[in-house]
Fold this sequence. Notes:
Elements: H1 16-20, E1 36-42, E2 48-54, H2 56-60, E3 64-68, E4 93-94, E5 106-107, E6 113-119, H3 122-129, E7 133-138, H4 145-148, E8 164-172, H5 175-180, E9 184-192, E10 204-210, E11 215-220, H6 225-236, E12 243-246, H7 263-275, E13 279-282, H8 285-291, E14 298-306, E15 312-324, H9 332-340, E16 349-358, H10 372-390, H11 394-401, E17 410-415, E18 421-424, H12 429-440, H13 442-455, E19 459-471, E20 477-483, E21 489-493, H14 502-514, E22 521-525, H15 542-569, E23 576-579, E24 582-585, E25 588-594, H16 595-601, E26 617-623, E27 629-641, E28 648-658, H17 665-685, E29 716-719, H18 742-753, E30 762-763, H19 767-774
Parallel strand pairs: 1-13, 9-30, 11-12, 15-16, 21-22, 28-29
Antiparallel strand pairs: 1-6, 2-5, 2-7, 3-6, 4-8, 8-16, 9-14, 10-11, 10-13, 14-15, 17-18, 19-27, 20-21, 20-26, 23-24, 24-25, 27-28
Helix pairs in contact: 9-10, 10-18, 14-15, 17-18
Amino acid sequence: MAGTQFFGERIKRNEDPRLLTGQALFTDDVNLPDMLHAAFYRSPYAHGRIQSIDTSMAQEMEGVVAVYTADDLGDYWQPGPLLVPPPPVKDIVFNERTQVPLAKDKVRFVGEPIAMVVAESRYIAEDATDLIFADIEPLDAVVDLAAALEPDSALVHEDVGNNISAHVVQQKGSYEAAKAKADHIIQREFEYDHGIAAAMENRGVVAQWDRRAQRLTMWDTTQAPVFVRNGMAALLGLSENQVRVIAPFIGGGFGPKIMMFYQEEVLVPWAAMKLDRPVKWIEDRSENFVATTHERNQTHTVEAAFSKDGRLLGVHDVFLHDQGAYAPYGLTVPLNSQCTLLGPYDIENYYSEFTAVFTTKTIVTPYRGAGRQHGVFVVERLLDIAARELGIDKAEIRRRNFIPPEKFPYNNEIIFQDFAPLKYDSGNYEPALDKALQMIGYDDFYQNIQPQARAEGRLLGLGLVAYVEGTGIGPYEGARVQVTSSGRVSVATGIGTQGQGHFTSFAQIVADQVGVDVTDVDLVTGDTDQFHWGAGTFASRGAVVAGSAINEAARDVRQKILKLASDLLEVAEDDLELGDGKVQVKGVPDRAIPLGDLAQQANPMRGAVKPGTEPGLEATNYFGPEYGATASGIHAMIVEVDPDTMDVQILRYVVVHDCGEVINPLILDGQIQGGVAQGIGNAFYEQIIYNEQGQLLTGSFMDYLLPTSLDVPNVEIDHETTPSPLNPLGIKGAGEAGAIPTGPLFAQAVEDALNHQIEIREIPLSPSKLWELMQ
Length: 775
């Protein structure tokens, strides 16, 4: 009997029938008897002092059950938790300021909640917010990063004394020494603006308090249900086993749904307990633009030292990072930028300094890529400029600077977001580059395709970039695997799911270990009653950390299966094999036990049991990596620029990606395709724009452009495999790979199409921006 090998196979997703037929549970699908609905009155000003709030008319409106302001919260009003503390960096400056449930004395961004209305319907609650009157004395908005640091700037947090959220310097080697022996110095300023996640499903919370059981249940669009359970229990004065948080299917997370605690997330369960009725709040799209966290602007002033043969000897980078009004997620985003700038390149001398700045804009937290885009943009643009000024082919200059395979594991020395020195576990970048060049037809493009197009008056250009993506950081994840008496296998893990295909890829890992079909594995994610511990879905860590934990638990169950079957069949464990849902003696099909029968015998009703015997075919295990794994890749793209409109059409897009061993290539390709779609949006369509008063000018899909299916090409994908030594499966993360390098790829390809008439130093682009640059 030979069982099917599922790891590495292109298996269709187990969860898709439920999703495609509308049978999957999302937070807004939760409708409970006697349920109330919440809406929020939000600040119309970016910055101002609250003089008074009049809620009397709203309270008198028929159907309104309660209206709450900060004064009504009593001791429950307190700043939210600092989710990520400052990193252990020498001489760091860090001013901790986190969001509050409802603004009390001052508002700090447009959309900050001031009052909460709870009513019999969402319609009534929304109408009642129009009857709330807040007397707010406007203050100067803080929008521009450089101006925010001037002595005469308005202060977002007066008690800090300035608008500095943090100041961090990290370095290795000596940039000044590298500069002294360099043949060529490049100095530039780069700006990378950003946008919003624009997930299909907005945020939402439903909370129910069972006073008889003294138990709170929350359905929450969160990427970190265990942290929400622990945090809400502490806030509400409950034990952790009195709080159940369920993160059901989620229509896109992308990072902003990690944030804990959003104001609404804190207030909805509090109101449910206070009113003893279930309460629901579902974010609408206009709220999403101002109330869900952004990832925003960075401005880099950078200098790079090169030898005449194109070796990057050192980089000196000083940048400003926009934190928004509060910084609950610490310094993850700018720290990622600082680290990811190093890319796949052997850079021995590096000085990086950033100042994180408080502004009167929406809070900034990680969004797919989480600051990595910014660092990649800087180093890839430097290499493009150096290649042009030194007369070196752009592919060749990257090849000359790659870290050679024999140098792995490669220690970059500076501190990464996991608070350990940034170490690359494994990598081999040249084969990926060679494959990408072959796939995109690099030589043929420059020898034939581009010259012929130019002769016809067409503007074609090719971009080529490389990147490294830090993935799979700790601290840990866990899982429980159980063979049930039906023969099906139940798996529970604390990690949530937002469309990554966990119900399939995790099932493939288990199916291989215990010898069942992948469709016979039932997975529960993101339910704190089913599994009590976990960190969450972020930083491309689901498959690496939770997948490894599931593999370890499934391996433990396999050993239990073999041990019990060995006793029952009276053969050595080495003489047994698993497959087709049973365990049998090798080569003797009639000496087999179905796993369901074996599970029943593992939990006997009667009979003697040896002391210390564990009942059931069940195991729980945990996995925590020593440090994060590093995936990598090469993106290549051919574009055509319309000379009249400056519109850009993508003709071909190629990705060669290395995320170690691949569990399911079909799911992986989908992750990359989706990431590229978001990367294209960030590079050429999407931009959050504020005016001088801190008012959002792009607060709807009429003004904030998303790429459509007509703008996103089918991505041609191939893989190289450099297994990670950090986990038993040899896997690395891949969730953010498509989105990270698209900005510099666009810039390089468009410059190439325009025959380098312009030098692009900012992202996002747009036809109007290109037109301005060309003038």
